[in-house]
């Protein structure tokens, strides 16, 4: 179609097209692979966000049989783009983002009717999912980087440590978690912030989305700014156990960035998407920032230092 223009995609199996309409533009999201998550679940989560006064793309029409949905166009002005420009007051935008995060974390809606008329229930972010995600580091990165001789021994130790770390989490899994809450998935729309890419949302740990925002592999921030954002978030929480929250924030940040290293390696090997490999060194940097702060990481730190020299400093 002449009025469709392909636009930049993401790490998923989706393709995006901007549709030029007479009075407004819209986005066509096309997905044959994992289409339940990428089309139906994506819209169901957006509906939950919209119901709770969070700006997310509205559904205009769906053609699930032909593998696409048509949704509201939020434009191209990501917060990532804005913050990447020089002389921006980063803290100003992070204050706005923390406000949105607080709003998201107050969401009590757990189910909604999908466009197929069935009840969609947001799943729980249980320990099994968390452990399986962290183990992607072994499944892809370790298998690529280590010899067969050392690999099996490493994987056995690593999986044992990851299980212990996940059991070391202290907060309940009772909060709406976007799961990819970072500045590339936040859009500026007429001075308001909109949220995209929410199809992976689960009910999980309160610290997860903040760890995703502060220790973002795509957007580099100073330790000083990271600390300011963290303190800003904590200052807005009235009933927060700061010790438990800090513990979980650090564990989830490390587990998330191990997962990311695995996913980016998988994208290169399985899908031929090599552009994400350049972000892996920064994922290691982010692990370094957190791994030295909590004694719970001692065994993981020792294991990584022994097998990935130079990555943990």
Characteristic terms for this protein:
globular; alpha+beta; Aminoglycoside 3'-phosphotransferase, Chain: A, domain 2; two-stranded antiparallel ribbon
Low-confidence stretches: none
Radius of gyration: 20 Å
Q: Compute the number of strand runs.
A: 11
Helical run tally: 11
Strand order of the largest sheet: 1-2-3-5-4
Order of helices and strands: EEEHEEHHEEHHHEEEEHHHHH
Shape: globular
CATH superfamily: Aminoglycoside phosphotransferase (APH), C-terminal lobe
Classify the fold: give the CATH topology: Aminoglycoside 3'-phosphotransferase, Chain: A, domain 2
- Which percent bin holds the helix content? 40-55%
CATH architecture classification:
Alpha-Beta Complex
Q: Terminal Cα separation, in Å?
A: 53 Å
Mean pLDDT metric: 94
Number of separate domains: 1
> Based on helices, strands and strand pairing, what is the structural class?
alpha+beta
């Amino acid at each position: 179609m002449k009025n469709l223009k392909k636009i930049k995609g993401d790490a998923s199996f989706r393709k995006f097209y901007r549709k030029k309409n007479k009075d407004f533009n819209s986005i066509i999201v096309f997905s044959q692979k994992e289409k339940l998550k990428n089309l139906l679940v994506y819209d169901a989560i957006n509906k939950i966000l919209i119901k709770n006064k969070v700006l997310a793309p509205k559904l205009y029409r769906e053609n699930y049989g032909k593998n696409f949905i048509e949704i509201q166009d939020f434009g191209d002005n990501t917060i990532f783009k804005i913050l990447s420009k020089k002389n921006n007051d980063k803290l100003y935008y992070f204050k706005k983002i923390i406000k949105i995060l607080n709003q998201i974390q107050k969401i009590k809606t757990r189910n909604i009717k999908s466009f197929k008329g069935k009840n969609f229930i947001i799943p729980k972010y249980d320990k099994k999912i968390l452990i399986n995600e962290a183990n992607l580091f072994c499944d892809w990165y370790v298998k690529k980087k280590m010899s067969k001789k050392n690999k099996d021994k490493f994987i056995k130790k690593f999986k044992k440590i990851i299980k212990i770390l996940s059991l070391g989490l202290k907060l309940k899994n009772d909060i709406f978690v976007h799961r990819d809450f970072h500045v590339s998935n936040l859009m500026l729309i007429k001075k308001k912030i909109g949220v995209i890419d929410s199809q992976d949302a689960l009910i999980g740990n309160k610290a997860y989305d903040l760890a995703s925002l502060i220790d973002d592999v795509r957007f580099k921030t100073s330790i000083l700014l990271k600390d300011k954002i963290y303190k800003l978030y904590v200052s807005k929480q009235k009933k927060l156990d700061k010790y438990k929250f800090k513990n979980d924030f650090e564990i989830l940040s490390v587990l998330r960035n191990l997962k990311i290293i695995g996913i980016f390696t998988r994208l290169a090997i399985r899908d031929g998407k090599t552009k994400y490999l350049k972000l892996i060194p920064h994922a290691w940097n982010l692990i370094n920032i957190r791994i030295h702060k909590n004694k719970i990481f001692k065994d993981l730190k020792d294991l990584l230092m022994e097998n990935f020299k130079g990555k943990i400093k």
